Amino acid sequence: EQSVKKYLEERIFPELGSKLFCVVYFHTDVRRSENFPGVSTIRSIYESIPAAIRDNLEAVYFVHPGLRSRLFLAAFGRFLFSSGLYGKVRYVSRVEYLWERLSKGEVEVPEFVREHDEELEDRPLMDYGLERDRHCSSLCDAAAMDISARSMYPLRRTA
């Protein structure tokens, strides 16, 4: 956390000055137990940003949010983050939709994020948390749901 704050102070803030900016967060392949910094760390970093710079933040693009992440932020986001930050979060399910908001050359997209997008093209139910991705274990962000014809029969009867 301290190294991120130091990096921001030394490299990013001087370059931003009074310009408007946005943050792109790739949630692709994030595992809570392995590589997720935690909400308190994210909040602490955001609060350490000087107010003059924080006021110029236009949006936080949350790319590839999982179902759990969306539900968690919908339920607790207003309590954990200031309304200034919470109101600027924009969910983006695919990188291609990011280009509707930003210019393609503005953001460097890692290869594993592109690969995940390609997988989503072939398995669209992953967008909605109805199907797990190939890397996902039971701790992953996507919900598991049996969508076979047999499991869907009771839903058809009630509709």
Question: Could you list some keywords that capture this structure?
Answer:
159 residues; 46% helix; mainly alpha; 11% strand; globular; 3-stranded parallel β-sheet
Structure in words:
There is one protein chain. This protein is mainly alpha-helical and 159 residues long. The chain is 46% helix and 11% strand. The chain is built from eight helices and three strands. It has helices spanning 2-16, 39-48, 51-54, 67-80, 83-86, 95-98, 111-122, 149-158; strands at residues 21-26, 57-63, 89-92. It has a three-stranded parallel sheet with strand order 1-2-3. The longest helix has 15 residues, at 2-16. It is globular and about 45 Å long. The N and C termini lie far apart (50 Å). Residues 2-119 form the CRAL-TRIO domain. This is Ganglioside-induced differentiation-associated protein 2-like. It comes from Cocos nucifera (Coconut palm). Pfam families: CRAL_TRIO_2.
Query: Main sheet?
Result: 3 strands, parallel
Major β-sheet strand ordering: 1-2-3
Task: Give the count of helical stretches.
Answer: 8
**Radius of gyration over alpha carbons?**
18 Å
Q: Which range best describes the helical content: under 10%, 10-25%, 25-40%, 40-55%, 55-70% or over 70%?
A: 40-55%
Strand content: 5-15%
Order of helices and strands: HEHHEHHEHHH
Low-confidence residue ranges: 137-159
| Shape estimate | globular
Overall residue-averaged pLDDT value: 77
InterPro entries: CRAL-TRIO_dom, CRAL-TRIO_dom_sf
Pfam family, one: CRAL_TRIO_2
Protein name: Ganglioside-induced differentiation-associated protein 2-like
Domain CRAL-TRIO: 2-119
